[in-house]
Write a structure and sequence with these properties.
This protein has 357 residues and is of the alpha/beta class. The chain folds into two domains: 163 residues, Endonuclease Chain A (Endonuclease, Chain A, 2-Layer Sandwich); 190 residues, Endonuclease, Chain A (2-Layer Sandwich), CATH 3.30.870.10. It has nine helices and 19 strands. Strands 6, 10, 11, 12, 13, 14, 15, 16 and 19 form a nine-stranded mixed sheet that branches. It has a six-stranded mixed sheet with strand order 3-2-1-7-8-9, sandwiched between helices. Strands 4-5 form a two-stranded antiparallel sheet. A hairpin with a 2-residue loop joins strand 10 and strand 11. Helix 1 runs parallel beside helix 2 and helix 2 packs parallel to helix 3. The chain is globular and about 60 Å long. It starts with a helix and ends with a helix. 41% of the residues are buried.
Length: 357
């Protein structure tokens, strides 16, 4: 159902006995807020991190009114990346805390995409029981709760956020999962590398597509005979005044999602195929699913307009100023089956219902 991530989170909150550390991009779900407040009343320590531009949402306001400790960040900033360009002002909508996760008793991790808005769209989420994984999410949370966000910069304009997790791979039975945190581990670059490494196909769904390096990677694979298909959220395309203006110069099979749906997720399928489909060399290769908490945004934080005099720096919606996470699910031939099939079916559902421009 549309609210399944919230229902699963409420169930985990109700079972908490010691601590709940949670980060929300959006919080407008009353059932989750009620569960957090009830947990606090029975003695569970509850702490929350939010995006500064969303702090006015009713869920955050309810928590603040009840005295729940809450830290917010990634608002508007002015910084000096290059003294030859002068100061650059970045509005709050260009800097976003895109995490939506909860660490329950430092042993259970719940995570989803798109936040917890009142009217959610298509989202992807996980619940995992692992103290190692929870520890890494705790470390990520503690950085932000302590005031270090993607927009926290040093004297020279460089980010202060550090790589606190010491593990990248987590084994759940036969399933290998990688988890990375942004901006410090550059999730967008990892997605770009994965696209270049595809052996059979690349398929993706996203609510934001503006990264030229990812578009170059997709075009390279398409030009060399690989199956490349994508679906982009319609509201984002409409704001860009059409897909052709959004990605000029590219010839890619990308559709806009149906007006009846709203995408609040980004995932990339690498070599996720039907049955016994093989690569052109006759071999089968590991299937991979990459799930991001944010869209496929720029890696550059600004571009320079050289037409006026002096030069003007134009800020971009960049992953440099996004707090977020990337999950990579790897199937090395032992798992297969339902999990990867569900992602493939989700993509095909959105692709088949989408429209060409």
């Amino acid at each position: 159902s549309a609210h399944e991530p919230e229902a699963r989170l409420v169930a985990q909150i109700e079972g908490a006995t010691r601590t709940i550390d949670a980060a929300f991009e959006h919080l407008e779900n009353d059932a989750v807020v009620d569960a957090l407040l009830a947990a606090r009343q029975r003695g569970v320590r509850v702490r929350v991190v939010a995006d500064s531009d969303q702090i006015g949402e009713r869920g955050f306001q309810r928590l603040l009114a009840e005295g729940v400790p809450l830290a917010d960040g990634d608002g508007a900033i002015t910084y000096l990346p290059d003294p030859n360009l002068g100061a650059i002002a970045r509005s709050g909508d260009l800097n976003t805390m895109t995490h939506t996760f909860a660490s329950i008793d430092s042993r259970i991790v719940w995570v989803t995409t798109g936040g917890l808005p009142e009217d959610p769209g298509y989202r992807t989420g996980f619940v995992a029981r692992s103290e190692d994984l929870a520890q890494d999410f705790d470390d990520e949370f503690n950085q932000m709760f302590g005031g270090v966000f993607a927009t926290t910069l040093d004297t020279f304009g460089a980010p202060l956020k550090s790589i606190a997790d010491v593990r990248e791979h987590y084994l759940f039975g036969d399933l290998d999962i990688e988890v990375y945190f942004g901006p410090q581990e550059r999730p967008i670059k990892l997605v770009t590398d994965a696209i270049y490494g595809a052996r059979i196909s690349v398929r993706f769904v996203t609510d934001h597509l503006s990264n030229p390096f990812i578009l170059d990677a997709l075009q390279y694979k398409a030009d060399n005979g690989f199956d490349v298909q994508g679906v982009v959220e319609g509201d984002f395309v409409d704001e860009a005044e059409g897909l052709a203006s959004l990605i000029p110069g590219y010839d890619l099979d990308i559709r806009v999602d149906s007006p009846d749906t709203r995408i609040s997720e980004t995932f990339v399928l690498i070599d996720v195929v039907r049955g016994q489909e093989r690569a052109r060399d006759g071999n089968r290769y590991p299937q991979r699913v990459l799930v991001l908490s944010h869209g496929l945004r720029h890696t550059l934080s600004f571009e320079v307009d050289t037409v006026p005099d002096p030069d003007v720096a134009i800020p971009l919606a960049s992953d440099t100023f996004l707090d977020g996470n990337l999950w990579i699910l790897n199937d090395y031939g032992l798992v297969g089956g339902d999990l990867f099939e569900r992602f493939r079916a989700r993509f095909e559902e959105l692709y088949d219902a989408g429209r060409r421009l």
